[in-house]
């Protein structure tokens, strides 16, 4: 280091890691490192240079060894969710297939608006050894490679072609990941030679920095417009999305609802914004929702949507509401705030709800609130019956009910694609705020175990004595399960319920509901399978170091779950459920699905006509 110019000579990789070590954030009065560490699989594209830099930062940036790059990204997403987007993890992968394996997890983070830093190997910038191992050559554009495929699925993308570029690129990447309206994954392509090149970096570049997440102040005129629309409402309703939690605005949401006596419904991402017992919580809305929430949604005249992107499962493909209903959308992202002719309030949920609470002199009609609460009471009775044991085949709902009764209020529940997101959303009774992670932004099979591992790492940093509980079907388990091994290796205990219905049963249900014959979804219906057989999930989980048990009924499930709560390492519980019986049949809004307009099947034709009969209710908008 030269004292005159106050510079320090480092490789590009060393500088990246040193800079990350010095980024901090204040959370609830406690100063914490912004980056919680990373997930990595080394190869020739990142081991020699980035690996060397990470070796010397093990105490400050712990590196968790992944088993699959895609699952590393899912784990980083689960970590960011648990920390409410206030902290993130990086993922590092080698050049070629190691990096391209991260595409799906980048898309998941993008869809869910989650921060994640991708530090990925790239081809040599000099091109002297081209073509190198695993390089994807483009004959007409030598600058175009696999890493360019990340551009549609990340919020920030850069390829570092000179060591000095990180002085600008790293702060921009962090600014994107911490921006409440533009939050998402950031990608840095790191050519193998550039990682090892040196540069005399300004010493002040590595000075400690404490970040704060910006709260966007809502425009006064937009608050006034929203207030005027609400002041005349006869049947108002609030849709509470995941952004409520990311804004840490649960208290403000509750105060707003209670002050003005407005019923609240929850999206899938906002599933734990209110306790199940709160008198204004009318239930989950939409395709995987409740009769109670959907009943008031179709009658509401003014709808305040807070922190939601209003995706089709929330809106019933825009059939769940009166076509003339006025939306007021409170969102830090301008793109989301203006959807479907909404009155936009572009701003932080916490600040916007507080401003609206103070500005509004209004109470919803008591008969409207009474109607909403009556609908919720009926829904609660249905759920109670749905999750009860009864004399019927094992079902997802029943398994959910058993766990719900026995878990700690602060335990975290994780589910993703397939039939379980709908069943958890509809049947889970929220015991505490922010305890449910149903990944349905990208509806990505395989997220469950990997995302839970990442969530458990974060949870151990906050509430080490609580559990992370995973609901996963056999289809998702077969797609990505290797982080059972990761959880055991790292001492991050999970409780995993593998509910085996013999294939992709929920898609088989959709297939049948649209008049089609069962085909290629349940293992028994695959024409290329001469002799179907079940996987021994218990033995497989044991092989990865977990404690594993198989149960045959709900009573056994309860007893084994109690043992799992006392276990000191990952505990896998396997139970068969019926692929045809036991589905939650109530609460569903319409969902737009492409069905054949012509067919030789009478059943498919009739299903198409029936499906299309709801389309006239569809709200047209942008």
Report on this model:
This is 3D-(3,5/4)-trihydroxycyclohexane-1,2-dione acylhydrolase (Decyclizing). It comes from Aliiroseovarius salicola. It is an enzyme of class 3 (hydrolase). The protein is of the alpha/beta class. It folds into 3 domains: 7-211, Thiamin diphosphate (ThDP)-binding fold, Pyr/PP domains (Rossmann fold, 3-Layer(aba) Sandwich), CATH 3.40.50.970; 220-378, 3-Layer(aba) Sandwich (Rossmann fold); 391-576, Thiamin diphosphate (ThDP)-binding fold, Pyr/PP domains (Rossmann fold, 3-Layer(aba) Sandwich), CATH 3.40.50. Helices cover 36% and strands 18% of the residues. It is built from 24 helices and 23 strands. The strands form 5 sheets. It has a 6-stranded parallel β-sheet, sandwiched between helices. Strands 14-13-12-15-16-17 form a 6-stranded parallel β-sheet, with helices on both faces. Strands 19-18-20-21-23-22 form a 6-stranded parallel β-sheet, with helices on both faces. Helix 12 links the parallel strand 15 (302-306) and strand 16 (326-331). Helix 3 crosses helix 18 and helix 8 packs across helix 14. The longest helix is centred in the middle third of the chain and has 22 residues, at 366-387. The model has no long low-confidence stretch (mean pLDDT 96).
- CA gyration radius, whole angstroms: 25 Å
Name the strands of the widest sheet in spatial order: 5-4-6-7-9-8
| Annotated CATH architecture of the largest domain | 3-Layer(aba) Sandwich
Query: What percentage of the residues does DSSP assign to strands (E)?
Result: 15-25%
- Overall number of structural domains: 3
CATH topology of the largest domain, which one? Rossmann fold
Q: Briefly, what CATH class of the largest domain? A: Alpha Beta
Helix coverage percent: 25-40%
Mean pLDDT, to the nearest integer, reads 96
- The count of DSSP E runs of length 2 or more, i.e. the number of strands, is 23
């Amino acid at each position: 280091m030269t004292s005159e110019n106050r510079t320090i000579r480092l490789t590009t990789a060393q500088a990246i890691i040193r800079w990350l070590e010095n980024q901090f954030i204040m959370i609830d009065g406690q100063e914490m490192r912004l980056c919680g560490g990373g997930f990595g699989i080394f190869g020739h594209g990142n081991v020699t240079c980035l690996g060397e830099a990470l070796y010397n930062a093990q105490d400050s940036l712990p590196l968790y060894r992944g088993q699959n790059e895609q699952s590393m990204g899912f784990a980083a997403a689960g970590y960011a969710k648990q920390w409410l987007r206030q902290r993130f993890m990086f993922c590092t992968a080698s050049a070629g297939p190691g990096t391209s394996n991260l595409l799906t997890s980048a898309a998941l983070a993008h869809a869910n608006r989650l921060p994640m830093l991708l530090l990925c190997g790239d081809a040599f910038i000099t091109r002297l050894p081209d073509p190198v191992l695993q390089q994807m050559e483009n004959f007409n554009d030598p600058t175009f490679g696999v890493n360019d495929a990340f551009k549609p699925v990340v919020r920030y993308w850069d390829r570092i072609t000179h060591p000095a570029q990180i002085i600008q690129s790293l702060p921009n990447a962090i600014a994107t990941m911490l921006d409440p309206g533009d939050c998402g994954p950031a990608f840095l392509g790191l050519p193998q030679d550039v990682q090892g090149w040196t540069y005399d970096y300004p010493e002040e570049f590595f000075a400690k920095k404490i970040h704060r997440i910006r709260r966007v102040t809502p425009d006064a005129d937009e608050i006034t417009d929203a207030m005027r629309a609400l002041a005349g409402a006869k049947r108002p309703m609030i849709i509470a999305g995941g952004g409520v939690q990311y804004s840490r605005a649960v208290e403000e949401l509750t105060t707003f609802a209670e002050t003005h006596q407005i019923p609240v419904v929850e999206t899938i991402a906002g599933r734990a914004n209110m306790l199940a017992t709160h008198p204004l919580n009318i239930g989950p809305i939409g395709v995987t929702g409740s009769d109670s929430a959907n009943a008031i949604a179709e009658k509401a005249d003014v709808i305040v949507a807070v922190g939601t992107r209003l995706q089709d499962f929330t809106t019933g493909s825009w059939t769940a509401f009166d076509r003339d209903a006025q939306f007021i959308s409170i969102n830090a992202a301008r793109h989301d705030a203006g959807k479907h002719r909404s009155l936009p309030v572009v701003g932080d949920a916490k600040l916007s709800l507080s401003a609206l609470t103070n500005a509004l002199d209004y109470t919803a009609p008591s008969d409207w609130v009474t109607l909403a609460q009556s609908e919720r009471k009926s829904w609660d009775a249905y759920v109670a019956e749905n999750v009860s044991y009864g004399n019927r085949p094992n079902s997802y709902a029943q398994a959910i009910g058993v766990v719900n009764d026995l878990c700690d209020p602060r335990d975290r529940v994780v589910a993703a694609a397939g039939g379980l997101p709908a069943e958890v959303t509809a049947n889970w009774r929220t015991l505490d705020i922010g305890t449910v992670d149903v990944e349905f932004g990208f509806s990505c099979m395989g997220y469950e175990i990997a995302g839970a591992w990442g969530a458990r790492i974060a949870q151990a940093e906050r509430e080490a004595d609580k559990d992370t509980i995973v609901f996963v079907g056999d289809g998702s388990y077969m797609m990505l399960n290797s982080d059972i091994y990761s959880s055991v290796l790292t001492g991050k205990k999970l409780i995993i319920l593998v509910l085996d219905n013999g294939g992709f049963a929920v898609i088989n249900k959709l297939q049948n509901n649209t008049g089609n014959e069962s085909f290629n979804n349940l293992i028994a219906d695959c024409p290329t399978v001469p002799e179907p057989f079940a996987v021994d999930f218990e033995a497989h989980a044991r092989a990865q170091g977990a404690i594993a048990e198989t149960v045959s009924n709900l009573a056994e499930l309860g007893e084994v779950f109690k043992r799992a709560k006392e276990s000191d390492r990952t505990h896998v519980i396997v139970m068969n459920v019926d692929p045809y019986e036991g589905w939650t049949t109530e609460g569903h809004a319409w969902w737009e699905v492409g069905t054949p307009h012509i067919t030789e099947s009478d059943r498919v034709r009739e299903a198409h006509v029936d499906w299309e009969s709801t389309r006239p209710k569809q709200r047209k908008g942008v």
